[in-house]
Amino acid sequence: MRDIEDKEYIRIEKIRSAFNETCKLFGFKMFMPSPIEMLETLEVKSGSGIKDEIYHFKDKKERNLGLRFDLTVGTTRHIAGKKDLRRPFRVGTFGDMFRYDEPQKGRYRWFHQWNAEIYHTSGESEEWVIELLNFTTSLLNKIGINNFKIKLGNIEIAEEFVSRLLYEQNVDSFRSSENKVQQVTATLRLLDKIGKKSEKQIIDEAIEIGLKKEKAEMLIRFGNIKSNDIEKIKQEVKIIFKESGIMVDEKNKGQNMESFLENFISSRLGKGKFNLTKDMENLEYDLGLVRGMDYYDGFVFEIVDLNNKDIGSIAGGGEYSRLLESFSGPPNLSAIGIAGGVERMMESISKHDEKEKLVIVIDDEEIEGEHTNDNAQALIKKLRNNNVPTTFLVANDFRKHIKFAEANNATIVIIAGKKELVDGKYRVKDLKTGKEELVKKESLINFIKELI
């Protein structure tokens, strides 16, 4: 475990504040699920194997419990119990998570996550995908992450392609065959590794799970289809579906994806006709994106910070209904959600941290035998009463205290010294520019407010 010091704490609170503001702007209700769940509840989402990845224990009554590893499980458990839920229901959550994981950059055993979920009537997913992506874009802009890519995929399209590739059948025609379903799932997991492993590694793993080399090569071609040009996507999908024996027509899932993208662009640009412009360069359709195959069952998406690619995705999510069904939720209720890793986002915002809006008053000399502390304290009180964050130092080494102020990301230093106070002025140093000015007492507050 780790302790969170000042700078990290401030960044967490910055993201929390931006998240709360975004929830208010988009009409999301705030909620906090319990940090402790029944172990069987946590297993609903990720299976019994999740025990190896989380903290779990028995309480004094010998009940099997676990610490939450995400916010979706507890929120969905709660929502599923509301039989009279008014739809759509938007909910935002922000809190601590725990995973028994190998710590690495941006990934810790104790970490924070924000989560936005929309619970809606089945069959209405497309407009809520748009809403969540708009929500996330607004949040990232507030935080200061502006150079990012939205990657869009669809589990149904990938599942349909893989089932046709393996068995030349629609996946619904063999749902009752456990062996075939397991093979499709294994192949989908392999599809998700394309771009993360070499082609040789993908082919070798494909052969290990029973695919022929030529089918593995076709899988790689499919997984590498990604573009922000819908016409290019359409052509590549048609070619590869045709070569794989999959006909593309008006009823195909690929047409649904095309319609979705058209609606998405229209909502952003106010145009009825699909037209991908420079304003949408951060959107990329990625056929190889298949996250959480046992969990998501429609659109999936990830957000990657292009200025910090090594950290991986900073947010991701998709649409799901199976989890609601597992909790015996109301009929025809579906959901779509997105979650962001706070510590991962902090890796991005730490690169462009601004100075804190903090004023440090330095009391450095005496006036005719009387210490200036009374003058400094009166000034500090006045600044704080005007909502200016302020602290102070009693200086015996002025240069060291300036360095202290800089080390604490202070914005401004005010020197309340003998020479200045005799003339009814304060010496103000702007640490952002290095500029110093003598400012009259009566003008000081307005002068400071303008600087910060």
What would a concise description of this structure say?
Helix content is 41%, strand content 22%. It is an alpha+beta fold and 452 residues long.
Characterization of this structure:
Strands 1-5-6-12-11-10-7-9-8 form a nine-stranded mixed sheet, with helices on both faces. A five-stranded mixed sheet has the order 16-13-17-18-19, sandwiched between helices. The chain folds into three domains: 1-138 and 306-353, BirA Bifunctional Protein, domain 2; 148-302, Bira Bifunctional Protein, Domain 2 (BirA Bifunctional Protein, domain 2, 2-Layer Sandwich), CATH 3.30.930.10; 359-451, Anticodon-binding domain (Rossmann fold). It is built from 16 helices and 19 strands. It has helices at residues 6-26, 39-46, 72-80, 125-143, 155-167, 178-191, 199-208, 213-223, 230-243, 253-269, 322-326, 342-349, 373-385, 398-407, 418-422, 444-451, and strands spanning 29-30, 36-38, 56-58, 64-67, 89-98, 110-121, 148-154, 226-227, 283-286, 299-305, 313-320, 333-341, 359-363, 366-367, 370-371, 390-394, 412-415, 425-430, 436-440. The two termini are 36 Å apart.
